[in-house]
Each structure stands twice: as C-alpha cells, then as structure tokens.
Amino acid sequence: MSEEAASRTVRRPRSPRHIKAAARILHKETQRILAKHAHRIVPDVVDQIRAAMHAMDRLRESGDWAGLEEQAEQLDELLHQHASFARKSALRETMENVLIAVIIALGLRSCLYEPFKIPSGSMLPTLRSGDHIFVNKFAYGVQIPFTTIVVGQTLGDIERGDVIVFRYPLDESEDFIKRVIGLPGDQVKLEGRDVFIKRMGESDFTRLPHEKLEDQRCYDETGAKEVQRCLLFRETLDGESYIVRYMMDAEGQVDPSRRDRVLSIPDGHLLVMGDNRNQSHDSLAWTTTVEAVAADGLLSFKDLRDLTKERLFSLFRPTSSEGAEDPQFDHVRYLAERRALEHDLELEVWRRPNLGVSTIYEMLLGRMSYARASDIEDVLADDHRIGEERRERLARASETIERLALGHTELGRQALFVDPVTNTVFNLRCGSELCDRDSVLARYVATIVKAYRRDHDQDARELVEPDKSVRYNEHWTGRGERKDKLLDRVFGRSGASVDAQVRVRVWRGAPEGEEWLRDVALLALGSSRELARAVATLGEDAWLVRTADRTAVIAADPLLHTVMMIECGQKHCTNESQLTLISQSIRGKLLAATREHRSIEDIVTPEIVRLPEREPESEPAPSNYEYDRVRFEASTRDPEYAVDVRAWRRPRTGIAATIDELAHPLPSVSPDDRVAAGGRSTADERSWTFLFGIPDTDTVVELTCTKTLCPNEDMALALAKRAAEKGRDASNFIDPNAERARPFVPRGNVKGRADRIWLPLSRFWLPIR
C-alpha cells in the first residue's frame, strides 16, 4: 500500500465532546441491556461489562479522553460478542428516532401551535386568501388527537369575537376559519346589516354597534385591486372591535339570499360568521338534505279558504319553536292578511303643471285639515330618536323645498310641498301607524326630494318606498304621453296682447280626474262653481267665468273623460255668444275624435277660432304627462286571525304517550274522538285546540285556531279533520329531500384560536383581531 493510501486510512482524532457523547450513549445502552438481559449473559462476562462501565466513569471524571475512548471501544466489543441479541439494529434505531420526532411534532401540532393557510376570502378584510397563520391549540384546552375530547378547558374560554379554526360540521375532513358571534344559550337576530344578540340570561336583544368607514376602501383577495359596491364597517362585540364588509347589489342593497332570522344556539355549540359577511359560507348558509316533516302539507291555503271566511293568508315558521332543528318536527302558523289603512302610503306628483304650481298648491292646501306651515329642520329637531348626523343629512337634502305644509287626514298625516328648482308639486299622505309622528313624515319628504333631484323623470313609484315589514299592494296611476292627455294651443296675431288671444286647453283621460281638473281650472281663473255661471248649452257641468281681460268656459264631461277650458280675450270675444260658438264647435269635434279613437291634436283649427296659431313662448313641455300617483295599500298579518299546526313524526315515546305529554300543560283538556281515536281537545277564551294521532304515518298533530278566525268549534273541528285526512298519506307532508339549516359548530370541533399571521412578510406576526 502506498504512503498516500495509508494516510487516508488513518482515523482522524475525535474531539472530547464527541468522545463524551458516544460514551454516554454506550453507557445508557449497557445499563438497559443489563437491566433486561443480564440473566442471559455468562456471569463472568457480566462482571467484565460492569468493570468496563466503572472504568469509563473514572476516566470521564479524570478527563482522560484517550483512555475513555479506548475503554468505550473495549466495552462495545464485549457487547458485540456477548449481547448482540439485545442491541438495536441501525434500522430499528432510525425508526425509533423517526417515531419520536413524529410524536413530538404531533404533540406540538395538537397541543401548542399549528400552521394554517387561509383558503378563501370569507374573512376579508381581516384575512386574505393565501395568508399563513398560526393557530393556538391550547388557548381553549388541549384536544386529544383524532377525537373531539378536550381536556383542560379551564385554560381559557371561547369568547364572542374570537377568530377560530374548526372542523366543518358538514364535512369534518375540512377546516374552516370564522369569527365567533354567539355562544351556547345566546339568541342571534339578523336584520339586513344589523346583528342583534340576546345573551343567555338577558331578556332583550342588543344591537352590535357598527360604524361605517367612509375613508376606507375594499380590496380583492390579493389586497391590490379595489372592489366596487362594497362597504366596510367597524363592528364592536363585547368590547372588541374588528372590521367587516358587505357587498351590495346594483340597487345598493344587501344580498337578499341572506334572509332575516333569529337563531337560538344550543348547549355545546357556537354560531360563527365570516367577516366578509354576505360572501362567506358560514353558519347562515350551512344546510343539509334530510327527510323532513312539512306541516303546511297537512293544511294548505286552499283548505283555509275552503273552511274559513278569510281569503288571504300568509304562512311562516316561528323561528323560536322548540325542536326547530329536528326534521321530524314542524310548526307552521297561518295568519289572515287584513286591510290596514293606517299603514297606507300615497304620493301624487305634478311636474311643471299646466295650470300653474301655485294653483295646484292652493287647491291641495284648501282641502287639507289643520294645515300648518312647517320647516323640515324644526320638525326633525323635535324627534330625539334621530341621530344628529342623520338629522343634518335629511335637512340638507330638503333645504331648498318651499311651502311645506303638514296636516292631518282621516287616517293619518299629510305633507304638501313644492320643489322650486323643478317647478314640481308633491302631495304625500301617510297612515297613522306608518307615520306615527311628524318627523317620520318629514323623513319621507327629504327622501323624496333627494331622489327626485337625481332624476326629474322618475315616476312616483321610484321616489317613495313604504315600510318593508308590511305587505303592500301597489297601485300606480301612470303618466302616459302628454299629447294623448293634454292639448294646449294659443291663437292670436303677432304682437297681440292677452285680451286679443284665444287659448284652448283640453284634457282627455287625465289621471287626476274630471272633477279635480274642473275645480283647478276654475281656481286658476280666481273662481269656483259657486261663483261661476252655469252654461247649459255646453253640458251639465259647464261654467262661464268673466275676468278683467277675458271670458272663459270650463266644461267637464265624465262620459267622454274630458275637461275643456277655453279662454277668449275681451277684444276678440266681444260677447259671450262668440265664445259659446267656439266652445260648441270644439266640443263637437272632441266628441267625434273620442268616438273614432282619434288624437285630440286636430280638434282645434284656426278656422274655428278665426285667428292664426301662435308659437308657444315657454320652453317645450316634457314628452310625458305631468301627473302621476302611486298608492301603497297595506295589509297586515293579524295575530288574532291565526291557525297553528304542529306535527311530530315517529315520536320517541309513541303516539299515545306523546299526546298525554302535550295535553298535560293545556287547561281543561278532555278526551275527544271526533278527529281520531285517542284524541284530546280544549278551548279557552281565545282559541280552540285539537290533539290527535295518525297511526297510518306514525304522526301526532296539534292544531290551534283563534276564535276570531274560527268563531265556532265546528269550523276549528273541520280544519282538524282536514289535517287528519291529509296526514294519512305521508307524501302530502313528508319532503324526502328537504334542506334544513345546520348552523352551529359543536364545541368539540374547535381546533384553536387564530393568533398570528406569519406570511406574507409584509404582515409578519400581526395579531389577528
């Protein structure tokens, strides 16, 4: 062997640190072997091994590292020759080390911190898609791996407002991250963007304060691109604040699929929501498909119309019903919808009225009861329930209106006002329940003016919106084309004064009505039917008025749906007979045009008036007629006219025992087999109640009808019999593919609290609030 090759085989000296570590490992292994296998080794060899161990201890204490290395090699050789059966193989050693590392990693991951990547934008703007976070696994106790068992819950309680990671209740292979809104025993009510909580033990709901962030913008999941139609709010829950966002539709409304409701949170569960409120798959969206009872299949709208005197009903499911999450139970309530005049709302609009803004205003004002001049700002100031910011905003929106008059109608309040910018007159009537104080009426006024300023061509339906909590039937009186509704022409020689002109106006099918237009036309001339003179030759409702410079005829014809107003200057019509002849000629042509469904454009010619037509001096009139009206007629669900149907299918204790259990709290219950054998019935001053079983489908039904809807027992009995008859066929009231809400997270599914962001680096170690 060459010198170079020999030099490569010379072992490099080890450092004292390596020698001590190797000796310690060998010493530990020797102790394990002697403890477990000394009886299998020759006693003399055991003594040699122990002597080698003691020698190693002395050499380590004296610091003789070369001697310690030599003694360790001798001990290793003894073990190799006489105890190799007890020594671990390299593979086993590696596997044990890997297993230990895995156990340590699982322990850290299960009990301390776990990294987590945000998969979606449901928590925007708090967390973005792709963010990496750490989840604190011991914040609420330690969860035993692969189970839902949590030990040491005293380490910390889950609090409202916490951001948690949990196993998705509908598919526990997925992890979700959301914010805790409700705890066990809470009730959470949702109304649009408002969230209300009734905490366990409290009697009232409390609205979560939220402040609109006017100066902040929404961004997409990358945080780079601005998102339109998005609003940010700072919401506060139990003293902690965080930012949530809402996406709006084209009309500026929250997504209607997130319906208003009340959720009661059971023991051991949580209600969670994403911060990206209406774009988050959270408690408000989770549903599952089940076979479910549908109690409205036992009694339908048609059944109610057949068996009661009411015709219109609404159905809803009381959200607070016990067992509402149980698909084998259902509770429906039918309420008769009854006309509610006190909730009506009506708006009339005249745009640049042909008979003049002042004339229309004075006519309406004269018909108001207890009218008084008012100022929007003063009216709003009297209502302390309106916030200062909103009061100022409403006052600014209505600061240019003129001649605001508030008054009373038979069933509510009335507001009459003028927008001088657009020469428009508004007449608003509001029911006493809808507008229970003047400030509510004033808010409607401000809203109408603000909307009208944005677009003068909007019709009345687009300017006002009634209370959404009440059902309304909308009735709109449309405008139509002006040329079909109104003819307005002026005749006279160029430069002639008013007293030498003739002006002809004809309204046909005008939505204001013939009597109204007749009175307004008389008022425009400073007259009325009491002051004017009847002209029998022009019809039963024709009147002549003389002023200083002209003579006028106003004639209304309800059969032709027309009103005719002809004004003739004193210099042209030197006597009344000339005006009468002109009026008769025009009326004759109007009659022919109506019969032949022709336009009214050609009923007046210069030949009839004997004057040339003059070009209009004012700006062109709008193409649509000036007036329209919208009337919202309210109907309310009357709780005094109600039917409740509750159904339990496959009751756990059986039909008879369930009927006994349900009958126990009812007053004066008596056996009643008229609906079904084993049934019960009772009555109090308010309602009739029937309890009965349907063995064919293993179902128990409780039906209650108020005495205002069912004035006699026979009517309530007929409803119960109809429900029993339909209940014998499961296909009538069992939905095999029903969608049922499953909105709550079991406490055992919670993996931990989201604590810190660690990627991207621009937001490294930011706390998650």
Produce the secondary structure layout.
Blueprint: H1 3-9, H2 16-37, H3 43-62, H4 65-82, H5 90-111, E1 113-117, E2 132-136, E3 142-143, E4 150-151, E5 163-167, E6 175-182, E7 187-191, E8 194-198, E9 206-207, E10 210-212, E11 230-237, E12 240-247, E13 261-264, E14 269-273, E15 287-293, H6 301-307, E16 313-316, E17 329-339, E18 345-351, H7 357-366, E19 369-373, H8 376-381, H9 388-397, E20 402-408, E21 412-419, E22 424-431, H10 438-454, E23 471-477, H11 482-485, E24 486-491, E25 502-508, H12 514-524, E26 533-534, E27 542-546, E28 550-557, E29 562-569, H13 576-595, H14 606-609, E30 627-649, H15 655-663, E31 670-671, E32 680-683, E33 687-694, E34 699-706, H16 713-727, H17 730-733, E35 734-741, E36 744-746, E37 750-759, E38 766-767
Antiparallel strand pairs: 1-2, 2-37, 3-4, 5-6, 5-37, 6-14, 7-8, 7-13, 8-9, 10-11, 11-12, 14-36, 15-35, 16-17, 17-30, 18-22, 18-30, 19-20, 20-21, 21-22, 23-30, 24-25, 25-29, 26-27, 27-28, 28-29, 30-34, 31-32, 32-33, 33-34, 37-38
